[in-house]
Design brief:
The chain is an alpha+beta fold. Helix content is 48%, strand content 24%. It starts with a helix and ends with a strand.
C-alpha cells in the first residue's frame, strides 16, 4: 500500500479486543477534505468566469471587424459616385467642344442629350449613395454601441468579482489609569483573493486630523503582507505604552482647544487576477460628551473613511 493510501486511512488504536477510530484524526481529515473541496470549487468558478470573458472579448473583436468592413464598403460606393460624376463632366465638356467647332447640329444635339442623361444618372446615383451612406452610418453606430455595451459588460463582470476590503476600528480602555487599546479588522467581502501590500494603524491626540495621514504611518517596521481569500479577515491590535492621565482626559474633553484623540488605519491591496491596486481607510475620534456607561464616545471621522 502506498504512503498516500495509508494517509487516507482513518487512524485508530486498540482498546482491549476492539479497534477504535481516533475521533480527533477523523475531524482533522474531514476539515482537510472540506478545504480541498472549497479550493476546487473556487477554481471551477474562476475557469467559468475566464471563459465568459473570452466570449465577450470575441464579440468585441467581431464588432470591430464588421465596422471596418462597412467603412471599406462605404468608401467603394463613394469612389463609384465620384467616377460617374467625372464621366458626366467629360461628356459635357466634349459636347461644348463639338458645339464650338461646328461639327454639326445633329451631333451637338446628340451629345447634349447624352450629357443630360448622364447628369440625371449621376444625380440618381448620388442620391442612392447618400442613402446608402446614411444606412452605413447607422450600421456603424449600432456596431459601435454593441461593442461599447460588450466592453462595459466585460468590465462590470471583472469589477463585480474583484476583492472588496471593508474595515472596522475601535478603541477600548480609554479611561483614567488604563492603557487604551486600538483594534482594527479588515475583511475581504469580495469574490476574488487579494494580496495585502501594507497595513498600518495609528492613534493619538491631534489638533486636527492630519492633512497627510500617510506621513503618520512611517515606521521602521516591515510591511505587513498576506493573502486574503474571500471572507477572510485580518486584524491589528496596539496598546499604548503609558496609561491615560487626567491631563490626557482633559485634552480629550476639550478643556484645551483643538485637541482630539484620533484612531485610524489603512490597508493597501491588489487583485490577484488583474493586479489592480485598491485601498481602504478607517478612522474614529473621541467626543467626550457622548461617553456613557454603554457608549465609549467614539464616532466615525468625516474625512478618511473611504475606499476604492
Amino acid at each position: 500500500m502506498s504512503d498516500q493510501e495509508q494517509a487516507n486511512l482513518p487512524h485508530f488504536h486498540r482498546e482491549g479486543d476492539a479497534y477504535v477510530i481516533d475521533p480527533q484524526q477523523v475531524q482533522i481529515e474531514a476539515a482537510r477534505r472540506l478545504r480541498e473541496d472549497e479550493q476546487h470549487e473556487f477554481a471551477r468558478k474562476q475557469v467559468k468566469t475566464n471563459r465568459s470573458l473570452v466570449v465577450f472579448t470575441g464579440l468585441l473583436v467581431g464588432c470591430t471587424l464588421v465596422g471596418a468592413v462597412i467603412s471599406i464598403w462605404q468608401a467603394t460606393i463613394s469612389q463609384t459616385a465620384a467616377n460617374a460624376a467625372k464621366d458626366a463632366a467629360e461628356t459635357a465638356h466634349q459636347a461644348l467642344i463639338e458645339t464650338r467647332t461646328g461639327s454639326g447640329v445633329q451631333d451637338t444635339h446628340t451629345l447634349a442629350q447624352q450629357a443630360v442623361t448622364q447628369a440625371i444618372q449621376t444625380t440618381n446615383l448620388a442620391k442612392a449613395t447618400s442613402t446608402q451612406a446614411a444606412e452605413m452610418r447607422d450600421s456603424v453606430r449600432q456596431a459601435s454601441r454593441l461593442a461599447s455595451a460588450t466592453e462595459k459588460a466585460n468590465a462590470n463582470m471583472v469589477a463585480a468579482d474583484r476583492p472588496w476590503i471593508g474595515g472596522h476600528i475601535e478603541v477600548t480602555n480609554f479611561e483614567l489609569g488604563k492603557r487604551p487599546t486600538v483594534s482594527t479588522v479588515f475583511t475581504n467581502s469580495g469574490k476574488r483573493p487579494a494580496k495585502v501590500d501594507v497595513s498600518f494603524e495609528r492613534s493619538g491626540f491631534y489638533s486636527i486630523f492630519p492633512f497627510n495621514p500617510d506621513s503618520q504611518f512611517i515606521s521602521n517596521e516591515g510591511a505587513s503582507t498576506n493573502i486574503l481569500v474571500p471572507g477572510q479577515p485580518t486584524s491589528m491590535t496596539s496598546t499604548s505604552e503609558g496609561v491615560l492621565r487626567q491631563a490626557d482626559l482633559d485634552l480629550a474633553s476639550g478643556m484645551y482647544p483643538f485637541q482630539t484623540y484620533f484612531a485610524f488605519a489603512k490597508i493597501e491591496d491588489r487583485d490577484l487576477q488583474t493586479n489592480e491596486s485598491h485601498f481602504t481607510h478607517v478612522c474614529i475620534y473621541y467626543i467626550s460628551r457622548l461617553k456613557t456607561s454603554s457608549d465609549p464616545g467614539f464616532r466615525n471621522c468625516h474625512p478618511y473613511n473611504e475606499a476604492n
